[in-house]
Amino acid sequence: MAALETTIQRAGATGNIKATREDWLKLALETLISDGVERVRVLTLGQQLDVSRSSFYWYFKSRQDLLDQLLDYWRQTNTRFIVERASRPSATVIRGVMSIFECWVDERLFDPRLDFAIRAWARRSPTIRRALDEADEERVNAIRDMFKRHGYEEEDAFVRARVLYFMQIGYYSLELNEPMSTRLTHVASYLRSFTGQEPLAEDVEDFARYVEKTLSGKR
User: Fold this and answer.
1) DSSP string, 97-128
2) Least buried of 11, 55, 147, 173, by fewest C-beta within 10 Å?
3) Does the pLDDT at position 111 exceed 60?
4) pTM for this structure?
5) Which residues lie below 8 Å from residue 103, measured CB to CB, with a gap of 6+?
6) Residues 119/35, Cβ–Cβ less than 8 Å
7) DNA-binding residues per UniProt (predicted)?
8) How high is the pLDDT of residue 186?
9) Rounded distance, CA 100 to CA 125, Å?
10) Burial bucket for residue 209 (CB in 10 Å: 0-12, 13-18, 19+)
11) What is the pLDDT of residues 23-65, one digit of tens each?
12) Contact 77, 111 (CB under 8 A)
């Protein structure tokens, strides 16, 4: 762990410049999202950080090692939090779906830009395609299991999980950019459509409060 906290220093025109492992990962992640995996290059990243290539090799074995860590970061955020929210105990299926909805509100739980960067990468790499397929399956299965815990039959639970998950991925893909205030007006109808049950007014109100609290924390 000590190596992860070490900084690499290089004297330069701007003085004493440092680049940590987190600096490399953060820039690589931003580059993956904005420009695609082909632009995640050691030399290019080093130039942007204003450090030498030796800084990179202090933290990573190779470019592939960096890419593997980016993929692992994606798994540990976008997939992990959907599975975690779907696995939470909930008094009703409405509340179970609301827990999953939290991922669509808070980009710290699910970053759609990162997800689509991985999907673009998967078009170039069979290995990443397999990882993406596995992640989609894991997410859908976790949501399916949530429905099953609330008494839905296997096929019904599976289809409802697919509808809920694929609808949201499609929402991001179409780049609808609908204001949150507008989206909140549809929450009761979404809950009704996904579950076949009528949400209580307090369910909708609690979710609206969660959204307000989450968004105010980002300001």
Assistant:
1) HHHHHHHHH-TTT--HHHHHHHHHHHTT-HHH
2) 11
3) yes
4) 0.87
5) 81, 82, 85, 109, 110
6) no
7) 41-60
8) 96
9) 29
10) exposed
11) 999 999 999 999 999 999 999 999 999 998 888 999 999 999 9
12) yes
pLDDT at position 219: 57
CA distances from 191 to 69, 127, 141, 188, 204 (A): 36, 36, 19, 5, 9
The whole-angstrom separation of Cα 159 and Cα 181 is: 28
Residue with tokens 């990443």: 128
* Residue 64 in tokens: 């592939």
177: left (phi over 0), alpha (psi -120 to 50) or beta: left
**Rounded distance between C-alpha atoms, residue 70 and residue 29, angstroms:** 7
Q: Which amino acid is at 55?
A: S
Taking residues 141-170, report their average pLDDT: 98
**Mean pLDDT in residue range 167-182:** 90
